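Appendix B. One record, verbatim.
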Amino acid sequence: MFVTIRPPATCPQRLMACDGGRVQGQALRAGNSLGKIMKFFLLKQLQWILKVLAGATIRKYEPSVVAITGTVGKTSTKEAVYAVLKDLRSVRKSSGSFNNELGVPLTVLGDWDKVGGVFFWIKVISIGIFNLIKRVKYPEILILEYGVQKPGDMKYLLEIAKPSIAVMTAVGETPVHVEYFNSPESVAKEKFKLLDALPAIGFAITNNDDEVVSEMSEKIRAHSMKFGYSVNSDVRISGFENLSTEDRPFGISFKLGYGGAIVPVRVAGAFGKAQSYAAAAASSVGLIFGSNLVRISESLSSNYTPPKRRMNLLNGIKKSYVLDDSYNASPLSMRAAIETVKDLNAKRKIGVLGDMLELGQFSLQAHEEIGRLAGGSFDYLVTVGSISKMMVEGASKGGVIDKKNIKNFDKAEDAISFVKDLLKPGDLVLIKASRGIGLDKIVDTIKI
């Protein structure tokens, strides 16, 4: 015996609604995909227009281009170069970190400090065209950052503006963005395309203390000028000190030597050897443009301040002090920041450290190694992010820090209350992570 089961009368309507929902969902997804394609297409068109205009502007006005690349220290070096040259020549530097396909041509086309919407780009393009039609006052020197995130980036930027002077700051054994390359060596080779593009009469200014940079710089055809602490550096740094009173950091002092002359340099509000490297690289550029060490020292002392969120000393709540280095992080810069804190006076030293992103297969090992260093450097260690749990493991294994003084949080927001409650008068707090972790939120909460 067979029983026929008939669906309720409302079922067809339900099926239509279901099918309609599926169709609507597919349409929305297709619409979103189409929107992304259109946005990508328009972005590529904008990049092409800016590239053409910037290249034409370079050819017309023929400024001297100082290009800066490396894993760490690009922006600090750019600011230091500007400090040295601003009183000598008409100079324009890139704002913020305008170091990519949009940022580099944007700096070439005008002195813009931030980007905007559609009307902003129309304005940029219009002014760029106007400056090509009619001759206007244009800087003698452009100071540009050349950032590399993926293969081909350097080639693209060099098609916009080839420099006469190039600065290679540092690469390190595990550079950032390595996840987009086959190996750390591939990252270094991509960056070194900048030095390879220099003319024979150009100048390659390289970090003589970075093993990777030093080795690869031997192959370039341009004039070589090396800076660093090494005895065979053309511009040599010596006598470095982080300055602090009994409980408050103050700045740095060091000496710069070139051609037998030695001058002292003192910079308030700057900390760490990374700042001395920036100063030495900038001094090399200044010497090429005809300045001398005495004038360079005076310019650095009076004109240079570290870029925002790069080892900036801030007054914190409860009479504490905050070293804000929250802009970005790599193993090289993280190690340098921790070593700086070890060298400063404070009642207690607290590390608030977060994930270092874009390290690919090297990520876990790099975080554990930084954790070991942090464990021997801080009285308290607060880590933020999933990968930074490896810092906790490293600190627990190799440090002298008490395990009860180590705390991990998943997000920056989760750590804010704990850090605020932890602080006491005289504490020095280092805050550092990759930008995507958002530790600037903690800085903004605990600074005065």
